């Protein structure tokens, strides 16, 4: 598909127009950009008015994590929006795992989730700061995961502790 055609199709899909576009996923006409966040239009509520915007659906695939503060803000926004967050792909590591606290979340049983505690990229974190940020992180997790994180995962060294999506589902997280 030529670049102008692809851009036209992308724009049409973002505006939720019914335009068939080769190279896009047939189910929802949203391009597969691979890693990172992909925003997709969710289904219309049954009794939605014409002016009501649908809840967004966020699909996360192969997310390595990132800085803590922006991810905590993202979790708050997604929760406030009532967004459906789907954690899929091969892995969700580090700050990505905070998305488990976004509210309306589901996980793929095959996805590997890597957990570790807070740390600075350069320098040493004081014990007080470590406890503060560990607690902030734990507050985002569902209750069964919270205790495990505070007692074990936050102390993980350079190699994160992993849980599979299947293990999280067994702890009460919804399957996708």
Give a quick rundown of the structure.
This protein is an alpha/beta fold.
How would you describe this protein?
With 176 residues, the protein is of the alpha/beta class. 25% of the residues are buried. The protein is globular, with a radius of gyration of 18 Å. Residues 1-51 have low confidence and may be disordered. The two termini are 31 Å apart. Strands 1, 2, 3, 4, 5, 6 and 7 form a seven-stranded mixed beta sheet that branches. It is built from five helices and seven strands, in the order αββαβββααβαβ. It folds into two domains: 1-32; 34-175, 2-enoyl-CoA Hydratase, Chain A, domain 1. α3 packs antiparallel against α4 (143-151).
Which keywords apply here?
176 residues; alpha/beta; 2-enoyl-CoA Hydratase, Chain A, domain 1; 2 domains; seven-stranded mixed beta sheet; 7 strands; disordered N terminus
What is the terminal separation in angstroms? 31 Å
Q: Mind telling me the C-alpha Rg?
A: 18 Å
- What structural class do you assign from the helix and strand content? alpha/beta
Number of helices: 5
Helix content: 25-40%
CATH architecture of the largest domain: Alpha-Beta Complex
The CATH topology annotation of the largest domain reads as: 2-enoyl-CoA Hydratase, Chain A, domain 1
Compressed to H and E, one letter per element, the order equals HEEHEEEHHEHE
- Main sheet, how many strands, which sense, barrel? 7 strands, mixed
Shape: globular
Parts with pLDDT < 50 across at least 5 consecutive residues: 1-51
Record field, number of beta strands: 7
**Domain count:** 2
Average residue pLDDT: 74
Strand content: 15-25%
CATH class of the largest domain: Alpha Beta
């Amino acid at each position: 598909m030529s670049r102008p055609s692809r851009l036209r199709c992308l724009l049409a899909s973002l505006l939720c127009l019914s335009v068939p576009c080769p190279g896009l996923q047939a189910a929802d006409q949203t391009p597969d950009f691979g890693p990172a966040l992909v925003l997709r239009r969710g289904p219309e509520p049954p009794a939605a008015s014409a002016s009501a915007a649908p809840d967004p659906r966020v699909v996360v695939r192969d997310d390595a994590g990132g800085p803590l503060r922006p991810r905590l803000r993202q979790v708050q926004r997604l929760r406030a929006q009532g967004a459906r967050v789907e954690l899929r792909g091969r892995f969700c590591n580090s700050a990505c795992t905070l998305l488990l606290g976004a509210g309306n979340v589901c996980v793929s049983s095959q996805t590997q989730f890597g957990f570790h505690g807070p740390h600075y990229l350069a320098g040493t974190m004081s014990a007080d700061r470590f406890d503060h940020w560990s607690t902030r992180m734990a507050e985002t997790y569902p209750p069964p995961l919270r205790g495990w994180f505070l007692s074990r995962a936050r102390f993980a060294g350079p190699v994160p502790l992993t849980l599979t999506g299947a293990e999280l589902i067994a702890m009460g997280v919804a399957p996708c």
